[in-house]
Amino acid sequence: MEFAEIKQLMREFSDLPITKLDLEWDKLKISLEKQVAGAVQTVDQPVTCQPITVVNQPPAVVLSDEDDCKARANETAVCSPVVGVYYSTPSPDAAPFVQVGQSVKKGQTLCIVEAMKMMNEIPAPVSGKITRILANPEEAVEFNQPLMFIQADE
Amino acid sequence: MFRKVLVANRGEIAVRIIRSCREMGIETVAVFSTPDRDALHAQLADEAICVGPAKAQDSYLNIKNILSAAIVTGCDAVHPGFGFLSENPCFAELVSKCGLAFIGPDGDVIRAMGNKSEARRRMIECGVPVVPGSKGGVGSVEQGLKAAAKIGYPVLIKASAGGGGRGMRKAFSPKEFASAFTTAKAEAKACFGDDEVYVEKLILQPRHIEFQILADNRGKVIHLGERDCSIQRRNQKMIEESPSRALNSELREAMGAHAVQAARAAGYRNAGTVEFVLDKDGNYYFIEMNTRIQVEHPITEMITGLDLVQAQISIAYGEKLSWQQKNIKFSGHAIECRINAEDPTQGFRPSAGRIESYLFPGGPGVRIDSAIYPGYYIPPYYDSMIAKLIVHGRSRREAIEKMKMALEEFWIEGVTTNVSFQKAILSNQDFVDGKVNTHFIENH
Question: pTM for this structure?
Fold first, then answer.
């Protein structure tokens, strides 16, 4: 199992309403556990998955679920115009440019994609509210990769 | 050895390079344009990065995004394939500047050999025979007429920055010269952004003979024999074969030695090709040097038993050439037919579309280099070549028969191809008798 796949597994585990996951795959055993406020669900038996036959090796750039990457109704995607590294903050210690739920104006800087030491500031294509942020800080992104979504103002 | 290589190309050559890397235990990174997301090269590579939209200029020629992709994925080298950025000296230099190895010659060698009139000048300087022609670029019609008078008609007006058979015009007399000159300049400007042209003697009934050379980083240069690429349509190669019927062993030795000398004079490293024209009297002249791996490299591989892409990677890593010229042996005869998605009955118009299903030929001595798969949609943005069919036989006759049978077996549904046209050439008596030159297709 590639490290990128493990990262993706952890990300999805944290999104799903299960609190414990034991996975055996080839010679690898992974055990994930988390606390969830409210109803606590327990899984009695460890879940063993069939080894996944991966026809395509996952790309270095880890995209979330197919659905996540597509804009939902009323959403405008903000896509990376270059290949590079995504940064959510203007500098290492600063606050992020934007957060989910925040209102932004067209042209406002949403994030940075750094390509070979050049910082490309990514502007908002429309005015509206940030609905989802897909990209993770310091993650490699490719051309046209959706970084976040905006629900445009009427 | 390199740990990870980025393949800056697409289609069958990208697949070819990825395969060699895998055999050498090297991880691969593919780059693709948005319509190529499902292309075979992007699927076969260990990692794949989208570098731009459909237009080649914004994706496969997007130096910034390609370099960035190589850096973010932690590659140690870049293989440029052929076409696209493979002969872009700035790209080669930038790859090095970023601390990565460029699998090919240095940027300044690419730059020097990329200027056709400069390349000619160097060859003249070191005694490699060149087509009689103007010393350098020719600025005006008047200068051109003077040069042409000295050379003797007919002449060929060629773009200095040219390649791929474009930016060339013939003139059979002083009357035709002026308009041929202006048209060549205009086409040169449009295709290559540089309208400098030079004038050469037009060799009548020429054969296009090119020599494969390999040079390591320690100055050792060898040649791997010739390829006869005389079957061309509008200066685009259709069929290539090795060895050439027109060469006996003395001629091969002489031309091979000059090819090696040309590569040395250029300060060449890695794999390259020295092109000559051979006239009907057995005189040969240097035309240009191609500073990249070529489409037709498989036929050299078939007769020598060597893997040229692996050799490129080893040389770029710094390994010395393990073969001596005297150990290079040529065995049998190889032919390659380029299979294009085009309609010969409609002026060879490209035929884009979805490949519904296909059947490739096989058996001993039959090789296919291709990037298609059932259900693959051929994008209309790039060249129309969909496969290379290569055969090897113990003799030229056997190779021709094998190719004819392989073309019979070749079946593809969903797009029109030039297979029937290729079959017709292979069955033509003049071809079988070896009576070929670059006018073959127009004359038949």
Answer: 0.82
